[in-house]
Amino acid sequence: MDLELDDYGFDTLAIRAGQHRTAEGEHSEPIFPTSSYVFANAAEAAARFAGSQPGNIYSRFTNPTVRTFEQRLAALEGGISCVATASGMAAILATCLGLLKQGDHLVSSRAVFGTTTVLFSTYLARCGIETSYVPLADLDAWKAAIRPNTRMLFIETPSNPLTELGDIRALAVLAHAHDCLLVVDNCFCTPALQRPLELGADIVIHSATKYLDGQGRCVGGAVVGDAERVGKDVYGFLRTCGPTLSPFNAWVFLKGLETLSLRMRAHSANALALATWLEMHPAVTRVYYPGLASHPQHALAARQQRDFGGIVSFEVRGGQQAAWKVIDATRMLSITANLGDVKSTITHPATTTHGRLTPEQRADAGITDGLIRVAVGLEDIADIRADLARGLD
Ligand SMILES: *Cc1c(COP(=O)(O)O)cnc(C)c1O
Description:
binds pyridoxal-5'-phosphate; seven-stranded mixed β-sheet; five-stranded mixed β-sheet; Aspartate Aminotransferase, domain 1; Aspartate Aminotransferase, domain 2; 2 domains
């Protein structure tokens, strides 16, 4: 069942890449819940440990179900190597500690996932790795932030919750001119909508917890890139330091990948319909969605992405009180900060995901008190609209 990957399209790879059928002839991918593997004899054990014979030793190093997920995601992102991790944060940690060292400098876009900035500013800082933050869309600010010891540029695009875009092609050129790696957290688009490696990025990071799972069941992550940096350096960190993905979670993500592009197209269609409706609503002062012609980077989004994704943010008149009223009036949407689920979720960023920022930092980031984020799911769009209309009308 080993496909010649170059010969197949995205949806075929999403369903079949990486599967190695066993002698049992199973149709669906098996789960291998085993911590270690048995050798035929002492000499084989010695050869495996010495690295002179390939094969499984221990599931912190390799596991067949995890490997199937890694090979499938690598095929979808167009990468050579993929390393699966216990969470999205473990993927970011493994990338940074596998590739950076004391004295190195990292430039990150300001609007990355909140816990990512804690990882950079608290834990990487303790290892002597310094981080500077710049506005995602301001290429001059990126240029100005690069120092002789800068080794990595890190972005998420589109950003959360304001759906600002980073120009992956331009940032890759800048990174490579300064001997830096461009790392893209591709959580919001997934390879179904955006393939950063094709645009010049060196490494792609995923929180598989979100759209790769797609139904809010498991926590996991992955790093995709080349054989040297990902296959050797990031993998080396992982097998030693240990935040590996469980085979059960890998299996759930495999099943998620099978429907990835269908789901991402459906999320995008629902999100565009919702954003278009919100833009016409008199109680809404501003809508943030890259698929709207009014989005300042709509042209870049159309060029860089295959579709516009499932995250829509909007501002209501009347600040926090009005925003909470819209959230509390819903009966169907889930009030939770998670995203990438078939269930639509609604969040008030100023008092949850961005609640620990000072009012000045929030203002800087554009997170106003009237801002609401909806991660648009796959329910009937009429029901999603009606649920929001309860508080907006
Ligand atoms: C959720 C998220 C993460 C962290 O992933 P976990 O699986 O929760 O560890 C990283 N980046 C982005 C963009 C996320 O949304």
